[in-house]
Every structure is written in C-alpha cells, then in structure tokens.
Amino acid sequence: MRRASALALASLVALSVAGCTTAARPAFSPLPTASVVARAETQAVRTANADAADDPAIWRNPANPAASLIVGTDKQAGLYVYDLQGRQRAFLNAGRVNNVDLRDLGAAGILVAASDRNDPANAMLALFRLDPATATLTPLGKVSAGPGEAYGACLYRTDQALYAFNVLKDGTIRQVALDLTGAAPKSTLVRTMKLATQSEGCVVDPRTHRLYVAEEDVGLWRFDARPEGSTQPIRVAAADGQGIVADAEGVAIAAEGPDDGGYLLVSSQGDNAYAVYRLADDAYVGRFRVGAGTFGSTEQTDGIELMVGDFGPAFPGGLFIAQDGINPPAAQNFKLTAWGDIKAALGLR
Fold first, then answer.
1. Which domains does the chain have, with CATH numbers?
2. Burial 215-231 (b: 16+ CB within 10 A, else e)
3. Which of 6, 222, 236, 261 is deepest in the core (most CB within 10 A)?
C-alpha cells in the first residue's frame, strides 16, 4: 500500500489552516464521504516535477471492451494514448494541450479534440484522429476558438451537426460548429456564453442537450447546449465547502437510460474528493474519494471522465478515470476505478 507523500500531507495541512481562517469555505467537507480504490493506473506522464497530467477521454471498443483506449493530456507536452492496463501505447508531441474529449463518428473515424494553449492570447481547438488498431493519433489541424486562453473543451453531436464548446480561462464559453468534410477542419462561431470567473471543466449530456461547466471558485452550472437555446446559466451546485470544496474542476456524466437517468460528477479539488448529483433533478446524492490501495489514492484532481457499459472483467459496469495530481515517486498520472465500485459505495442503484 502506498502512503501519502510529504507533499500531499503538507497540502492537507495548508488546507486545514485555510479552513480555520475562512469559515464560509471549510478545508474539508463535513458531509459523509465514501472511499473506493483504483483498479489500475496509467504510466506517469514524462513531464516531472510539474503540474502536467490534466484530462482524460475514453474510447470504448464495442467489439472488445477490454481493448478500449484512453487519451490523456500532458498540458506541458502533448497527448498520450493508454490501454486499460495503463500501459502507454503512444505519445504525440502537441505542446500545451489542456482538456480533451472524443467522439466515435463511425465511418468518419474517432475524432479527438483538445483545447490548445500554445498561444495564450488566441484560443485554438486542436483536432486529431485516433486509430484504434494502432492506438496512434494523427493531427487533422486546428480551428480558432477566438481571442483568449483556451482551457476547457467538450464535444456535442446532434443529428444535424457536430459542435465544440471552448471554455476560456476567463469564463467565456464559445460554441463552434465543426466542419470535417474538407482537406482541413473548419469552425464557425455559433454563439458565446459567459461565467464571471475562471472556468474549465465541461461536459454535454446529448440526451437532454445540457452543457455542464465548472466555475472553479463558484460551483457547477448548466446551459442549454442547443445553438438556439438560452445563454443564461442555471446553477446546479455551489462550491460552498459542502458537496464541492473549491476548486470545482473536472466534470463527467454517467448516462444511464434513454432519457435523463444517471449521475453528474465533479472534482472537488479542495479536499481530494468527487461530488455526485442526479441528472434528472440536480439533487446531491453523495461524494467519494479514491483512497489508498494497490495503485495509490488521488489528490488535487483536475480532469475526470466516466463512461458506463462493459469494459471487460476489471470494469464490467463502467469506467471512471481521475487525474492524480500527487503521485510519488513518479510524475502525475491517471487512476482507473470501476463505476460499479463507486455506485456500491454510495448505495446507488
């Protein structure tokens, strides 16, 4: 069993001290927090002694779920591709890419999109194609997300079009329509939305056409993802030291059923936990941590991803992945946890 590092303990002490002086935002949530353990972890990113690993995305292999793949960002260097045993299958030097999402477009291939911060004054969305046979990424090109620093990114597909949401560091959210039919990808700005302060993590539930965005010091919001929808945010949860202890970071959904069934998860980075809400009514249902075990615990998580379904014997009901910000003695990496273990720990059906 791997124990927490001195850095992790120092971080927790610092959080406790901060909690003593800021009554409105305790360092640790007083709410009950379940514990689960990871069943696997990825190899560490190559960027050592830095905040590097950030966000994962999952491609499920329908023919052989145990052969599914993970794409993860090193926001100082590029994109990794891992298998479900955590082995590195490929690396692409893409520079400073922050958040990542992907969609299997069938005959058009598996599209991977990453927020590109190589030019901090001009946000870009870098696009790639994932080859599942070789686990390699091929660059398709970049499209503009307008002025500002790229931070979060997530994809949204309807019967009519493919969209990307680009969350900028200042809380601006730009929705663009993607055109992949030509020799190089193109984007068209559809609309702009705004949160007041620094924001990053986002995810879309295509069943309900809802976009969820985490505003780091404030909490979790949802928007209508449809291009003709309202641009006004609706608060789902506050980063009030209860369900979420700031920062609110990565966001993921467990879509269960054809309508609005399932759960919404958000990284409660301030106390190394994850808050869970019911998608149907935004109700809080519990929180959990990935505790120490064979593969260690997770701390200071940025990005998360979750996909329900069969992923082979180790993850028969679904796969939850969390970035691990403190992973001694190695650099940062990603931890893989069974969704069934999380549901059991929280008493969810």
1. 6-346 (2.120.10.30)
2. bbebbbbbbbbbeeeee
3. 236
Q: What is the pLDDT of residues 172-223, one digit of tens each?
A: 999 999 999 999 999 999 999 999 999 999 999 999 999 999 999 999 999 9
The predicted structure's pLDDT at residue 20: 37
- Output the pLDDT for position 309: 96
Helix (H) or strand (E) holding 108: none
Q: What is the pLDDT of residue 243?
A: 96
d(CA 236, CA 265): 11
Query: How many whole angstroms separate alpha carbon 288 and alpha carbon 116?
Result: 31
Candidates 165, 249, 179, 256; CA nearest to 214 is: 249
Three-state SS for 343?
Answer: helix
- Give Cα 336 to chain centroid, integer Å: 13
The tokens for 155 are 């994809």
Instruction: Compute the distance between CA of residue 61 and CA of residue 38 in angstroms, rounded to an integer.
Output: 21
Indicate the SS3 state at residue 150.
Answer: strand
Compute φ and ψ for 318, nearest 5 degrees: 145, 165
In this structure, are strands 273-278 and 110-116 parallel, antiparallel, or unpaired? unpaired
User: Which residues in the chain come in under a pLDDT of 70?
Assistant: 1-26
The answer to whether residues 37 and 337 touch, using CB atoms and an 8 Å cutoff, is yes
Rounded Cα distance between 104 and 46, Å, is: 28
Cα gap 258→250, rounded to integer Å = 24
Burial status of residue 183 (CB atoms within 10 A of its CB: 0-12, 13-18, 19 or more): exposed
